[in-house]
Amino acid sequence: MKVRCFSSFTFSYLNRARVLFHSLKRFAPHWTRVALITDKPPPGLEFPREDDPFDEIVYAEDLPIPNFASWIFKHDVIEACTAVKGPFSADACSTGADAVVYLDPDTCLFAPLDPVERILESSSILLTPHIAAPEREFYAILDNEMGSLRTGTYNLGFCAFRTDGEGARFARWWADRLLAFCYDDIPAGLFVDQRWCDLVPAIFDGVAILRDPGYNVASWNLSNRRVSMRPDGSFAINGVPLRFWHFTKLGEIADVMTKRYAKDNFQVYEIWNWYRRQVHEATDPEVPAGYWAYDRYRNGARIERSHRLAYRADPKLQLAYPDPFAAGASSFFESQVLDAAG
Description:
The protein is α/β, with parallel strands linked by helices. The chain contains 14 helices and 14 strands. The strands form four sheets. The chain has a seven-stranded mixed sheet with strand order 3-2-1-4-7-6-10, with helices on both faces. A three-stranded antiparallel sheet has the order 11-12-13. A two-stranded antiparallel ribbon has the order 5-14. Helix 1 links the parallel strand 1 (3-9) and strand 2. Helix 1 (14-27) crosses helix 11. The termini are far apart.
């Protein structure tokens, strides 16, 4: 099976993406590895490096997104990096690949994903749920079951689909929805792409739900997943191979959630410590912390979220300011500054 595997990220997550793609090179060497970058390189960064594990590099501004500057201004960094997954996926259906796999940049493989290919031989779309077993403790119900009700049943840090039939139809639908409605707006029923995929088993045929505990292991589902080490040094989850781990929110938040659910499962902390070292080694000092090229107006002023929301909500503003990043006279930036001044 010809598989096109991609991840969507900014240069702030380049270090994590390198770790992921090196693991793909090791465990899925026959897959085509594509870096989808919703960003522009920071000054002084050597990219790509000679040892970078990417087969292809695609910049979001080169995707078929009409009025790109106006479109991306409506999104914060998480919304934008998520939204571009849709048009890339639809485009990938015409590249000659049999299947497309998406992985978040903060995931990492620990074993081959051959079972994914086998599932896609008889299914068109493959999703993994945030949790695959009922929670037993009250706080876990609040965190994980009720959390899934708010943010979506399926974790879209991974998805896979065939490029024909229902898979291609899904990719086109996903692209349309994410281009128009990929926002973090839980009161409106949206959490970037995840709530949309709650609909997938209802409106598409050939949908497989992968409940194997070795996939998409993350801090929030460790309450029902026990990590152990095998004699050969590999890891197992509830006795089956650990396929990939989702290292969401590297730092204090992940530490709190991991300790809450891993408890005395010490192999979990070994895996996290290993990952931190890999990310550190893959980090370029030329990338400023929190860097995102689309985070500022051209005069260097940071774009306030309130500015993005105002622009997003008003089609008249979008028509009046097709390039909202401009900062000179009669610009959207000037209009916001004047509004703030009263």
